[in-house]
Amino acid sequence: MGGPAALLALCGYTLGAMLTVSGAVAGLPTTTVALLPVAITINIVMGKIVYFSGLPLQLDSIGTVLVGVLAGPAAGAATGALASIVVGMTITPGALPYAVTAALIGFVAGTLARAGWFRRVPTALLAGGVIGVFAGVVSAPITAFVFGNAGGTVGQSAVIATFQAYGNSMLKAASLQGLVADPLDKALTVALALTLLAGLPSGYVHRFPFVQQHRVLAVHRLVPRRT
Amino acid sequence: MGVSPRSADDSPVHRLNPLTKLVFAVTVTVSAFALTMTWWPLLLFCAAVLPMVIASGTLRKFFPMLLALWVPIALTVYVIQGFFYPETSRVVAEIGPLELKYEGLVFATQTALRIMVLMGGFFLLLLTTRPGALMSAMTQRGMSPKTVYVVSAALQIAPALAGRAQGILHAQQARGLPVKGLRGRVRALVPMAGPLILGALTDVGDRAVAMETRGFGTSRRPTFLTEVPDTAAQRVARTVMGLCALTAVVANVFGVLR
Amino acid sequence: MIEFRDFSLTYPTGSRPALREIDLVVPRGQICAVVGAEGAGKTTLAGVISGVVPHMTGGNPRGSARVGGRLLAETPPSELVGEVGLVMQNPFNQLSGARFSLREELAFGLENLGVDRAEMIRRVEAVMADLGLTALAGLSPYEVSGGQQQLLAIGSALVMRPAVMVLDEPTSQLDSVGAGLVFDALETLRARGVTVVLFEQRLERPARYADRVLVLDEGRIVADGPPADVLTDPRLAEWGVAPLRYTTAARRAAERGLWEADRPLPVTLEAAADGFAAALKSARTAGGL
Questions:
Q1: ipTM of the complex in this document
Q2: In a domain, A211, yes or no
Q3: Residues 2-61 of C with CB under 8 A from A
Q4: pLDDT, tens digit, for every residue of A115-125?
Q5: C150-C155-C159 Cα angle (round to 5)
Q6: Count of the separate structural domains present in chain A
Q7: What sign for the dihedral angle of Cα A44, A50, A53, A57?
Q8: What pTM was estimated for this model as a whole?
Q9: Quick count: other Cβ atoms within 10 Å of Cβ B258?
Q10: Helix (H, G, I), strand (E, B) or coil at C62
Q11: How near does any CA of chain A get to the CA of C266, in Å?
């Protein structure tokens, strides 16, 4: 019983996350490096508020998406992976195996931002949905094989249990739960990240060349507004 | 919170090089997941993790932390897999319309015990190591200073922000706003989360400037103020543990132990 | 030490230049204060001298600006380490965040530069002794007061042995005790022969500590000279700078003939007290009172 699936999911994912981080962080400019810890803090703070509010949501990757949009896929991936390590060190070691999912969220957010999905609200929300699909699928092996489909919130566990009761395999049940819950969660995450961006001073995005180079945000955010 | 910023305790385990404890945590975790005997993780926990915890004198902190995080997961995995484990045959008991299944219970036991080892290994590391020492050790082993920076700064900025939030909560309480209970606190926290987070984001520009004017991000090879103690014995121990973990992985992948 | 020639700068988001036609020479060892209203361009000028603007913020410079002979347009802040140290307004934001004690925080810059460990320890201990931080060495940078954090920021710049220190409103977010600590540190800088450019919105401290005062208004230098001249200039209010209260009091007195004609208007409390005492005395001898 068990077989290599649990071990492969655990080791492969952790190794992948570590390689992602070591490759991605070295090339980042100082302003982006200084942004990462704050983004991680946003993940933790919002994640905690939502957790204690009892809402059936996660919203623990707002900072990751924000970095992806401001500084690109590599920075986004690093934020996600390092956030998992920080949560692993401060809240629960159970976050460590999910580092790759978190990294992927930042990576996909950055890639879609480069492609211009964040210039308008509808496509940005769609981007959230796409991020959610990736997140749901990639986290499923960890949820299923490492945590035996437990480890999430009560709501998540109930949904997974229902899928399993209808005869789905553990991995399939976890994937289905992810596909049901994550796109909505990540669309909301994107909406909140955009709200934060709108609240920042207009000169702020100029510190991040990625935004300029790929015209990541709508044009009206980049024209002079200073008096 | 798992990290004790400046723990006063001291023990042989506290004095170990942080890397040794990190390698230990990784090795027990990998071994717990690699071998497929149901009760193996429990043996590992009792024979490896527990003696270390006892030697470190942190038993009183260790168990409450472990139980608080582990029990809910263990219960969930027993409920889900006990009743809904796919492709099962042996039914142990029937509770109303639900069937408690033998294979599910075995799987749940194994998974719960594995998670116990994972959490135990890392709690041991965190309870007996100053984050600063762990970070220094990582940098000195060649991890990129930028990576180490992000983790260290996040470890300190999160509590600093939490402190600000706490201050605002107290102020609201003093003005008679209801912030009692978890829900009340959440309701009080939400409106201030926005300004607090925006403030933290705007601070980033200043911090980047402060870091850059102090030579951060130059390609020069850094030196270190604090030296992390290490011994030949620990170096050997780390190699041996690494080999054990590797062997366990290889054995698992090639199905030797199945 | 610092040399600006016809220097102007426009930010990418700005329609008007933030600095216009700045001509400025600051010799080695001078303590030069720059005063001006909010938005006059103080922080921009501080940023230019320390290499932060435009390298980290964007912006189009014109003209030339040099520190220690190096052209700032070609030198990012990380290459000015050892040449220029910068201290900003908010003490909390200047903590690297990555070090867990005051001692380690002070060593952060030296570690980045790869300074030899023995030398690093020597410099850190010396700066802590200079600034009175030795007793706090083992504390977390996040658990000391704002004033102490600002001292830490000054120390973190000072360990790099800069020739120039730029202090951008270093006490604007501190209480009077904290501000006192910071200005005592200014004496340490003077004793070390460090060139200091101090940006301030209020005039009490420049009047007391500076060798020279500049007034910045809408990005231009509109006055430049010794504190006693510049700070008594009747046009200060037009430039958006509130004159010192005792200067204003003496001016009112002078308008009514209650201030000795050959005595300059005061810029420090002591000079004001002396002036009023003298005026009182001469009024008495004249039999007016």
A1: 0.90
A2: no
A3: 11-15, 56-58
A4: 999 999 999 99
A5: 160
A6: 1
A7: negative
A8: 0.88
A9: 13
A10: strand
A11: 37
